[in-house]
Design goal:
The protein has 448 residues and is α/β, with parallel strands linked by helices. It is built from 17 helices and 15 strands.
Length: 448
């Protein structure tokens, strides 16, 4: 009887700081659940819990991959770990040339064919939903003949001496086909933060964000019945009484939000939740609705204190509206406001406006602020805008993409990033003397 190749799925992400709560790796868990439903077992691996931030080097990751006993190793990767994954997979293939390396996740969805063409040790890249496209690849591998045209057009593969993409149009995953994640497939004990995903895709076009390149522009919403089955399961584990909803825009569908807010406290009167929320949706009525439904807090993307930039970013709110809405929301919820500096065309005056707005909202109780340097992620409009002038300086990589608690980038990583700016664009920044002046302003503000 023919034996199907063994499969491993790796969540390749930056390890958390010691004692920082960790949530289960949603992406690879969804894929593993879908594969299991087709009778294909897959082992799950997570660098967030298996490796330490202080010694998370390409070599350490390479050794980690080498001890995974699988014929096919699918790696979900985001821009932040892409240099490490590129080097680590080379180590893996040098030692075990017969193992198949498949890259997926956000970075592969944006870069796909470029990853296979530029790095000859990468066998394949999969874009979009892994439940459909990775499954298509596995079935193709198991089929006789192996005509690449039969692959999904979201799959790029090394076939002989050529790099080819499939031609079959595999339907994207339908919302009704999204299975409830099977948490029995993972080790439970390391994951003490309860996280869920209730939607996929994003209908908005923020120029600095790559979410809709991965999940599409259509907002696919899981049924509330499925969602509450998952919520009940997680809460019954007893490691936390708070569920964190990871959707980028949980409040966009008001009717669905209304139903959720009625149902959550009724079914779980002793539990709480938090979510990401679009600033334009956070009006007074919604704030009260969230607070009355046991919501502890919201994370909102403000981005800038400049009305001009808010307009360019299509945020749908003015600076005064941001101030008013956060001021009101902070009376009933914890509010984390995220800001970004370093946008194209952002002058010193705009930076001052942003810092002024941050200072004003920090005067409210229950408000927390994240301030990040812009990272021109692959596949974003911002990357296309600044690509001709962007620069790489290892000491000036955005903390959003590579936090300061991580081990310093190695010599090989720096060389790879310098050699392939279009692939590792997230480690770059807009060029010009203004950048350093603005960076000093930010550092002085944070230090004040």
């Amino acid at each position: 009887m023919k034996t199907f190749p063994s499969v491993a799925l790796v969540n390749a992400c930056l390890p958390r700081q010691p004692k920082e709560a960790r949530g289960a790796p949603q992406g690879v868990l969804y894929v593993a659940t879908a594969l299991a439903s087709e009778g294909i077992p897959a082992s799950l691996h997570d660098t967030a819990i298996d490796l330490n931030s202080g010694d998370f080097t390409p070599e350490a990751l390479g050794e980690y991959l080498c001890v995974i006993p699988a014929d096919i190793i699918g790696i979900s990767v985001w821009d932040s770990v892409l240099p490490k994954v590129a080097i680590a997979t080379r180590i893996l293939k040098e030692r075990y040339p017969d193992r198949m390396v498949v890259l997926g996740g956000p970075a592969a969805s944006c870069l796909s064919g470029a990853l296979v063409r530029q790095f000859p040790w990468v066998d394949c890249a999969v874009q979009g939903d892994g439940e459909t496209n990775f499954l298509n690849l596995l079935k193709w591998i198991d089929a006789p003949g192996k005509n690449p045209a039969e692959l999904s057009n979201r799959v790029t593969i090394r076939h002989g001496d050529a790099v080819v993409s499939g031609r079959s149009k595999v339907a994207p995953v339908n919302v009704g086909d999204i299975l409830i994640p099977d948490y029995r497939l993972i080790k439970q004990s390391p994951y003490t933060r309860l996280e869920i995903v209730s939607t996929r895709g994003c209908p908005f076009d923020c120029p600095f964000c790559s979410v809709n390149r991965t999940g599409g522009h259509t907002l696919k919403k899981r049924s509330l019945d499925d969602l509450f089955v998952e919520i009940s399961y997680l809460l019954q584990r007893g490691c936390s009484d708070c569920v964190h909803i990871l959707d980028d825009n949980f409040g966009t569908d008001r009717r669905r939000l209304d139903a959720f807010c009625k149902r959550f406290p009724a079914e779980h009167p002793n539990a709480y939740w938090s979510c990401y929320f679009r600033m334009a949706d956070l009006d007074g009525g919604t704030v009260n609705q969230l607070a009355d439904a046991s919501c502890l807090g919201v994370y909102v993307g403000v981005e800038s204190g400049s009305d001009k930039l808010l307009g360019a970013l299509r945020k749908g709110v003015s600076v005064q509206a941001v101030l008013d809405r956060i001021g009101y929301a902070s009376q009933r919820l914890n509010v984390t406001a995220s800001f970004i500096w370093g946008f194209p065309g952002e002058d010193v005056s705009s930076i001052r406006d942003t810092l002024d707005l941050i200072a004003r909202i920090l005067a409210f109780d229950n408000v927390y602020v994240n301030l990040y340097q812009l990272s021109p992620l692959s596949g974003t409009a911002v990357y296309e805008q600044i690509a001709p002038s962007m620069e790489f300086h290892p000491e000036a990589v955005s903390g959003f993409i590579y936090p300061p608690f991580m081990a310093e980038l190695t010599h090989d990583e720096k060389a790879l990033i310098s050699e392939h700016p279009s692939i590792f664009s997230a480690f770059y920044h807009e060029g010009g003397d203004d950048f350093w002046q603005k960076r000093k302003m930010i550092k002085d503000f944070i230090g004040s």
